Amino acid sequence: MYEQNSTESNPFTNAAEAALWTLQGRQGSGPANSSARLANASPAAIPQNIFTNPAIQPSSVINLSNSTDVVIGPMTQYQGPVTIYQYMDATVEARSVQAGAGITSSRSSNTTNVKQRLTRNSLLLITLIVLVVVTASVILYVELSRHRGARAEGDRPIYFGNNYDHDTFPNLGNGHLIIDRDQWGASERARPLTVPLRKPIPYVLITHIGVQSIPCVNVYKCSIKMRTIQDSAIAEKNLPDIQSNFYVSDEGNVYVGRGWDWANTYANDTLAITFMGDYGRYEPSKKQLEGVQFLLAHAVANKQLDVGYKLVAHNQTRPSKSPGANVYREISKWPHFYLCGTENTPKCGIELGMSPSSWDSKM
């Protein structure tokens, strides 16, 4: 079973082998010469450098086969109870404790960071919501205030005089401006009017300028036309002032003639409104018709006109082409139009005691 390859006797090798077998505490079935030496030899001291000195190397190789319970090298056997003590380096233990604490601290730090992020995001969200609510409230308040102001402005009466702010034109609505006498340049040669209008006014009389008058389309040209009409009334017809209470231009603006307080030159109990142009030849514009309707609605709202006022054309009260066929066709569709002064109809104003001469007072 055992084979020794070296034929030379090596005292270090023999000593090592004797020590190994002695430590086993038993004898193996080796070669005869080895068995004899092991049997007769007593335990001897093994050189301490036999395994550590590289100059000393075993000179034999042991081949084992079909063997069990074989130990090569030192083996210590203990008979009785054994207590094992483990000693750990304090530095290593401290590092382990620090590592464990680091994991706990890291977890705690991560939890704190998550809470901080959640708190920060919540604060930002709450701040954003508050800003949105405040902004919406401000916008709503401004809009409500503006609408209340607009309603209050619209509820106030429009005064046709120099009592509006910053010399701006009063507005009837939808862009229909009121051009007062000072704005269109009324003549100072007009004589004082003496016949007041009784309120509320029961009749509205619609006329036009006629005589091939071209409709004016802006404030400058219409102001010139108003002054021309006034000068003609004073100089040629010997009237104290311009004839009608109001004049409406092609762009829908209203020019003040005698105004709300004084009777016109046609009839005492009427509000005379004149279309500025010859409407036997020209068509009234939509803005012009609308301007007249806005003026009438304003007059009713401010109790200048009777709620059930009657609207008549100039040619219904006396022989005339005024207000022109084109204007007559339009106003005859309006709800307050009153059919009078024609065949089989009553005389206009007869219920007020007015006669045909009342419609041509020339005041």
Automatic annotation (TrEMBL):
GO BP terms, alphabetized: innate immune response; peptidoglycan catabolic process
Positions of transmembrane segments: 123-142
Pfam families, A to Z: Amidase_2 (PF01510)
Domain annotation Peptidoglycan recognition protein family: ranges: 176-318
A single GO molecular function term of this UniProt record: zinc ion binding
Keywords: Immunity, Innate immunity, Membrane, Transmembrane, Transmembrane helix
Protein name as it appears in the record: Peptidoglycan-recognition protein LA
Native organism: Drosophila lebanonensis (Fruit fly)
Primary gene name: LOC115622726
